[in-house]
Design goal:
Elements: H1 2-9, H2 48-52, H3 57-63, H4 71-81, H5 87-93, H6 101-113, E1 117-119, E2 125-127, E3 134-140, E4 146-150, E5 157-159, H7 161-164, E6 172-180, E7 186-195, E8 200-208, E9 211-216, E10 224-227, E11 240-247, E12 256-264, H8 271-279, H9 288-295, E13 310-311, E14 319-321, E15 330-337, E16 340-348, H10 359-367, E17 371-373, E18 376-378, H11 383-389, E19 397-407, E20 413-424, E21 428-430, H12 431-438, H13 445-449, H14 451-471, E22 481-485, E23 491-496, H15 501-523, E24 530-532, H16 538-549, H17 563-573, H18 579-588, E25 594-596, H19 620-633, H20 643-674, E26 680-689, E27 692-697, E28 703-707, E29 716-719, E30 724-727, E31 733-735, E32 739-748, E33 753-760, E34 763-764, H21 769-772
Parallel strand pairs: 10-12, 13-20, 14-21
Antiparallel strand pairs: 1-2, 3-4, 3-6, 4-5, 6-7, 8-9, 8-11, 9-10, 11-12, 15-16, 16-19, 17-18, 19-20, 22-23, 24-25, 26-27, 26-32, 27-28, 29-30, 30-31, 32-33, 33-34
Helix pairs in contact: 1-10, 8-20, 9-10, 14-15, 16-18
Amino acid sequence: MKNSKKTAVKAARAPATHTRQSPAAKSAPQAKATGRRPAASRHADGDAEARARDPFLDREKERYDNPLPSREYVLQVLREQGVPLGEMQLAKLVGVTPAEFDVFSRRLGAMERDGQILRNRRGAIGLLDKLDLVPGRVDGHPDGFGFCIPDDGSADIWLSPREMHQVLHGDRVVVRIKGRDNRGRPEGSIVEVLQRKNRTLVGRIYCENGLWFVAAENRRIAQDILIAPGQHAGAQPGQVVTVELLTQPSRAAEPTAKVVEVLGNYGDSGMEIEIALRKHDLPHQFPPEAARQADRLPLGVQKADLKGREDLRHLPLVTIDGETAKDFDDAVWCEPQGKGWRLLVAIADVSHYVQPGDALDQEAVARGNSVYFPRRVIPMLPEVLSNGLCSLNPQVDRLCMVCDMDISAKGEIGDYRFYPAVMHSQARLTYTRVWDALSGGAMDDDTRRLLPELQQLYKVFKALLGARAKRGAIDFETTETQILFTREGRIERVVPVVRNDAHRLIEECMLAANVCAADILIRAEHPALYRIHDGPSPDRLEKLRAFMAEFGLGLGGGDKPSAADYGKLLAQVRERPDASLLQTVMLRSLSQAVYSPENVGHFGLAYEAYAHFTSPIRRYPDLLVHRAIKAVVKKKAYDAGDWNALGKQCSMTERRADEASRDVLNWLKCTFMSERVGEVFDGTVSAVTGFGIFVTLDEVFIEGLVHISELGTDYFHYEAERQRLLGERTGRQFRLGDRLTVQVARADVETTRIDFALVAGGEVAATDADAADVGGGGGGRKAGGRGKAGGGRAAGAKVGGDKGASRGR
């Protein structure tokens, strides 16, 4: 599994035969071409004139020492010819020489895998759009059907259980639309499987009538995985195992596999994390070459490391983090300067120890980021770096990259500069201790000694906060939660994470440094990864405005509202009793932030340019930005390879980490609620769907489902634009933000599902399930299933000391 993962993530970084000119850069993995491949000896000489007609020839020459015909040119030639072409015939038309044929064949294989071309049964290569075929990714449903999510963003294509029998969730396919299903959705049939995503799976093993099989933990994989004879590795029925697929599913056969790892029993302590690691394919063991490289690193800063660095060891720089943090990326210090301040943000210099293309770097790009679970962290870098040599621990010398800024009295960033330095942290402070000191509470020796500097930092924060308000950045009020455990490892309670001004102080300092990082790269016209956040799409904007109109509210800005327009609307609703409802709808109208080399600004923060610079210990994009800034400072260039591929990789690993963390939280919360079945709680409707309402409980901040059949004797219809379920006969409605009293009816740990029942007058409300269950239909592929603990249908809060929730957005 590890080796296959490495191959996949090297798409952004490893040289193929047609290598990039920079030795540090790497290209896409070499996929095998399918179909019949004619021998190179039968190929005619390449046509130089044909190659010269490639409209992207100059670009390919810049990228590769031995450029091939561009993908665009291959597609252009296929379109001009108007018919499917044999591989040798196509190669000749685009000017490929015999010596290049094998590499060109691999490029065709990659184009086929990406859904740009397809080989017919005779091996001829054709254009998918000419064949009326649609490439996309399979999205499975626990009930056995699924959808093809087209690459071009068009409407999802429904796949029947019969079609889904030959694929697994996540596979890439080409489908032909054959009509409409009974709900009017496009229905497709799978023509070809382009790429198999699943090589290993985690699940529970069972034995029935001598037949061993595994039910995948990922409920979107509905097929049972048959275990080959004698390949159950001594696992006992009901245990959790990892299997390696021996054969993929087909129309006529189930997938088969062998057990490669027995994880233990489902209820074992920590099993939820072991499952999440494998379910989401998270690298969690460092390969030998990376471990050896880490072991060879020194234990501290060496004299030779100081060359070319500014010495800041005399300045009282301090780290301010949560109580459970162990990796300290950033330290801060400031002093008055004229009517403003000089603010220093010192960030761990990971790039000094992790070089492009080395073993640690390859593993870091595979991981993309650290993953934070309650009681356990999966670090991006080995602990000797993340908690040791790179961490800005107190009272030891550490290498850092510094953003040295002038901040005006109005909170505006003036001159700034970046430089490598050496520092000596004066204290490891926490948010609680700092806020106690700043608010006149208890002080310990460190906060008392450093109080003058902390007070200056607080003044800078106030100025930056004023600039933030003037800029119009969106400031949603959300509740993050943390799980507290007993000494025996049992869940004691779920509590909200209380943010104070010390949290916000550090956040504003980090935002300022990140803005400067983006600015220096833009000014130097140096490629980099930016943290981008687009404004609302037209359809989301239309739905938001329609919803707000129901409450007599409006969003300004016309077709292109700004963050300030959102901020003005937030200010209007903040004191209303339905503020939670309105804010939730506003938040859901916005897209997710991603990494990209194309700077389109950050809508939510109201920045024209923004990059992540402040957390290179735990985020790979920050490490890339450090390398780029160092290159700019030295008036050189850093070639990371394919920046687009790196952006996609880092965005994917971020989503993967969030999903894995959410799974673990859901499991833990469901375990917690399984001991409270029958108890009654007050709560708020946090989501409305076609199959019921999700309610978040006040006391424990855990979410569960009141199924539509539990709402009362009526036909309930889902109105998406108004975010409500409306009773046809009674007119009773259930809306986002409504207050309800519910009883915990069920908490299934295996499926992480929590069901609630409505309580009326101190008793569970009577229902007529047969009547109510026919009301309202689900709204497409995402409306299936039951309630997940903690909110399986929405992003959960990060816990376990993850600084990312407040740092850098």
